[in-house]
Structure formats: C-alpha cells, structure tokens
Amino acid sequence: MDLGERKKKILGAVIEHYIRTAEPVGSRTISKLDELGVSSATIRNEMADLEEMGLLTQPHTSAGRIPSTMGYRTYVDRLMKNYEFSVSEINRLRSLMELQLTEVDSMIKELTGIYSYLTNYTIVGSSAGNNNGYIKNFHMVQIDRNSALLIVVTDKNIVKNKQIYFDCDIDSTVTEKISNMLNENLAGVVKSKINLEKIYEIQAEMDVYKSVLLPVLNFVNECIESLDNSEVFISGASKLLDFPEYSNVQKAKELLEFLDNKENLHRMAASVDNADVKIIIGNENDAIELKDCSIVLSSYNIKGKGTGTIGFIGPTRMNYSKAVSTLKLLTGQIDKLTSNKEPEGEK
Amino acid sequence: MDLGERKKKILGAVIEHYIRTAEPVGSRTISKLDELGVSSATIRNEMADLEEMGLLTQPHTSAGRIPSTMGYRTYVDRLMKNYEFSVSEINRLRSLMELQLTEVDSMIKELTGIYSYLTNYTIVGSSAGNNNGYIKNFHMVQIDRNSALLIVVTDKNIVKNKQIYFDCDIDSTVTEKISNMLNENLAGVVKSKINLEKIYEIQAEMDVYKSVLLPVLNFVNECIESLDNSEVFISGASKLLDFPEYSNVQKAKELLEFLDNKENLHRMAASVDNADVKIIIGNENDAIELKDCSIVLSSYNIKGKGTGTIGFIGPTRMNYSKAVSTLKLLTGQIDKLTSNKEPEGEK
DNA sequence: GTTAGCACTCAATCAAGTCGAGTGCTAATC
DNA sequence: GATTAGCACTCGACTTGATTGAGTGCTAAC
Fold first, then answer.
1. Which residues, 6 or more positions from B285, have their beta carbon under 8 angstroms from its beta carbon?
2. Are the Cβ atoms of A156 and B252 closer than 8 angstroms?
3. Which of A33, A75, A120, B67 has a CA between 20 and 30 Å from the CA of residue B252?
C-alpha cells in the first residue's frame, strides 16, 4: 500500500491534530493548515480515500475523522518526525541530570517519578531483575487416589502449593519418585540455568509417568517463572485521568485496576524484546483492557544487574514522537548514571 | 453536649444509611426503619435539632441530611458498634493466614494487596523504617551578598541543595561558621538521636546569627525528616473510583495525584502516634486534598526493625466500624506472622 | 410530646427544538 | 482529469421548559 505525498501529509496532519485536541478532525480544519493549499472539498475526497484504506475512521456520519490503530501504526512507522525538545524543556530535563543517588533501584524510581511529573505521562517499569532465584525444595504429598499436593519452597522461603488431579490412580511410590526427581534435578538450580531442554530431559527420563508428570511440570514452570524478583512500579498513574478519554470513570477504573495488578505490569515488561523502542498501539495489545491504550516501551541495561524495562502508557492518541524521544533520553540517562556510579561527588 | 437516646439512634441510623447508599437520608427513610416507632414528622424535628448541633447538614433545602465531619466524629467516638465479620468473610480472611513469606516488607505489601482486594478499600502504608539514617556532611557556599547555597549529603549519598536568601547581608565568615557548626553538631548523627532540643541548643549557641540561621535550620530539618528510608506504598488506589463521590474525574484526579506523591504518604504515615487506631475524618486532615476523605490508621511493630504504619483511605462515609475491625485483624496478622517467623514450615 | 396534613423547594429527568460542524455529492471551473 | 464551490443532509451537543417526586418546615389537631 503506497500513499501519495499529499495523503501522507493529510494523514499526518489529522493524527497530530487529533493527538493535541482529542476531537475528531474535520476537512476544513486541515485545509486551513496552509501546509498544502487545497480546499476542504479536496481534503474531504482524500480523507474518504484514507478511510477506505482503513487508516481513518468516523465515529459517526457528520463528524470529523479519527485515526484507527492502523493509521497510528503507519504514522509511527513511516511518517513520524523526531520530536524536538524546546529549550525550556531541555533545561528542565537537564536539571535532572544533577541528581545523585546511589541505590540504583531507588534512583530509577525517583527518575521515572520526575519524568512522569514533567511529561505528564504515566510511566511503568520494572527494575533490573537478577535471574538467580531458585527453588529450594519440592514436596509432594498424596491426598487421595487421584490427587496430590505439590509444595514448592523458593529461595525466599515463599511457599506455593497446589492440589494436582491426575487422570489415573496413583500411589505414594509415584509421588515419592516424582518429588525425588524434582529435587534432584531442579532444587537449588538458579533460574537462569533452567531452560526448556532441562525440562524436556526430565520428561524423557520419567517417561513412564508422562501423563502424571504434565500437570506437575506445569505448576513447577509457573513457580519458576514467578521467581524473577524484579520489581515493577508505576509512576503518575493519576495522569491518565487528564486525558478526556478517561473522563468516563468506568473506563478509567478498568484501566487503573489493570495497572494496579503487578502481574499485568510484569507481563507488559516481559513483552519487550531487545528492540530499541517498542510501540504497541491500541488493540495490538494482548490485554483487552489496553485496547484503547498505547505503550511505548524500552529497556535499559545495568551491568551486573540485568535488564529492566521502562515505558510510557497513555491513550492511543499519545504524542508518540515526544514519548519516543523522552524515553530515549530517560534510558540514556539511566545508562549514564549507572555506568559512572562512583558517588561521593558533590553536586 | 449530650444527646438523648433517640437522637443517638437517629444519628446512627442516618450515618449508617448514608455510608451504605451515599444518598442524603430523608426522614421517611429513617421512620420506616422500625428501630423506633415514631413518625417521619418526629424524626424531622429531631433531625432539625441535630442539624442545629452541627452533626448533620443539608446539601440543599428539600434534600435529606448527610453527616458532617462532627457527625462522623461523634459516631466514631461514641456510637459505633464493633463490626461483626460474617462467616464467609472470616473464611476468606482466614485463608490468608496460610500465607508464608519471609521477607517482611514484601509480605506486608502482599498482605495489604490481598486485603485491599477483599475489602475493596484502598490501603496505604509505610514499611517499618529504621531511624538510623544520617547526614554525612554540610557545605555552605556563598552566592552573593544576601544568599548562599546549602548543600546536604546524606548517608545514601543523596545530595540535596537549596539556595537560601537572607534578610541581611552576609560574608563568607558567616557561611563558614554556620557550616562548621552544622557539621560539628549534626553530621553523622543518626536521625533517631536528633530531636528538637538539639536544634534549639544549636540555635541558642549561635544566637548572633539568629535571623540568618532560621531558614538554614528549616531546610536542614526538612532534610532530616526525609531521611527516613522507610518505603511507602499504596494498594488498590483504583478502588477509590468505585465510590460515587469520585465519579467526578476532576475530584478523583486530585486525590489520586495527592496519593501518587510519596511525600504526602510519608507525612500521613508519620502522623500516626502510638494510639491503637487513629481515625481522621474529612477536614480534620491537614491536607485540603483530603478534606472529603477519611483515614483509618494503625501502626504495627516488628522487633528489630521498627514501626510501620498501615491504614485505609476512603470517602468520609466509609464504613468505619468495618475498617477498624479489619485493620485490627490486619495488623494483628502482621504481628503474628512476624513474631513466629521461622519459615521452612509447610502449609 | 407526637402526628397528620399541606404548601413549598429544588434537583433530576425528559422531550422538543435549535444549532452547527461536518459530510457526500454534483456541477462548474481550471 | 483534478480541483473547487455550493448545497442538501446528518447527527451529536446544547438549550429550554415542563414535569416529577422526594423531602422539608410549619401549623393545627390529637
């Protein structure tokens, strides 16, 4: 799909205007923008085309157009220009550079707090987690003919347990054998050393009990996954309420509730691969709660500590270009502050 | 001020009804409550009396009555009965008892998260902080004739600074003297050892520079206050949006923004003395942002770690009796879990 | 002291009417 | 063939006015 130069300009103008105003954009508005000296009627035709292509939509006949997810996507991928910080913005941000904190985690939280305050965006993030958690030991206790309780104790002495039901009858030799096997193979092994192959190995080794093993391993896997003790946090959640799209309390509540749940943040943070900056727009999100939100995510690296994630969250019409630029600045600053972290320095 | 038995009953009925419905309560509603077999007209007279006493107010003529801060206060202090947990509530809460976590802080956070989820109230708290932070050293640099920069470095290498303006002209001997004095008297002294008397002592000693000293000491005090490295946290903030009083997004935003700021939470947490349970109603709060909120606070103690604070926050018409009971249960549970903290135990 | 009755108040709700921003289409123009 | 002016039409947003009903205060009777 190729857009003409003019269509690109119009799409860009519509999106940027909508980002600022949150109001559907009409053809007259665009035509007055003097970017391109054509009348509103022409714009109307072009906009009808763009709508046909699925880049714009109309909330109802006789309203202006608003960008669709695909529209934003095209904008972000192909049209967006780099956001230029104004002098005063640079000055405000530069003053942050003077922060001097030693505890890395609290520094990052502090920093995101300030950025959230300055940009008026909500920031979510996860601190750099080490993958050296492990499971201390496993216990398996038969409950009745076809169920047993699996108990898992982690290095932090968190105890998890689950009653597991089997398709067939079992006896205590089975539970014993399984728990022995788990203890031998997985107890004390740090998370980063456990991978799928290891699990498959076990599965092969225990071939006889295959059907019995599956639910057990599922739960074990769950436990291992949740071992990561990286912390997630959120700054400036209330900023979301600034956006007219959340003037409906019900909607706002659903989103805030979603963000309240650390599990969800974890999942979000985990989704970022090593790409530079990842942008997830509207219904590209896995969670339906986020179908009207966009997320701009990036990761940072602290040597000896691992990788953390940090990102902006806002309505789909967020200012992507500013978000991306700010995020780069923020992660850059984290890198800078953590690399030369010999404190003691005066201001 | 003494209330007759009937007035008490009516006040209690109004408050409890209002807590449930968030609607102004009319005389007919109360009269139908069959608690006391009198007609609505009688209730009206009594309610007029209660309004005159300042315990009830009317949002407008021809609306029912709603309790005033003073009304809630009398209710809480003198009328309120203990909340009785229902069997199912007790069962749900009891299942929490089975949690086994060792890291005290994360346990408490986890616990408050679950309680927030179950009670649908927002919970704020601060973890048990040690008071052994200190300020490493002070520097004072003259900037011009009547201002100087005060730089404070804490034990965590957090650097704070503030430009301080004086009423009179100063020279470098003054700044030098002040910074020497601060370093001699306060540098390296842990927070718990610093008290008002110490500050007064300094003030007396430096009598000559009294007017100069005041703004300096103010800032120093600020720094010392913020030394406490106990962490504050909030669980289930979005629950606030359930209350119709926050269906106005503007209002909700102000409150959430206030709670977003850790400083404010810190101040709130600090305000709890060693009382059993402290209830702060509406405009009894220092912060105007909380003038429509009530807070039920309590503290818990972990031996060897210090004191933490935990509390519910909600609209003034919160269910005080339930909040108090739940809070007692919660802090009790924390005590219990932290006292016999020999983990390793199976479920 | 209590209650029934009545006039009065006032927010909330609803329907009807108006307004205006914006569209799509057609015919004229460049 | 692309652009534009003009016009009829659509539809949400807003205004207005009438209606409703919950609730009050007061007075007179019980």
1. B291, B293, B295
2. no
3. B67
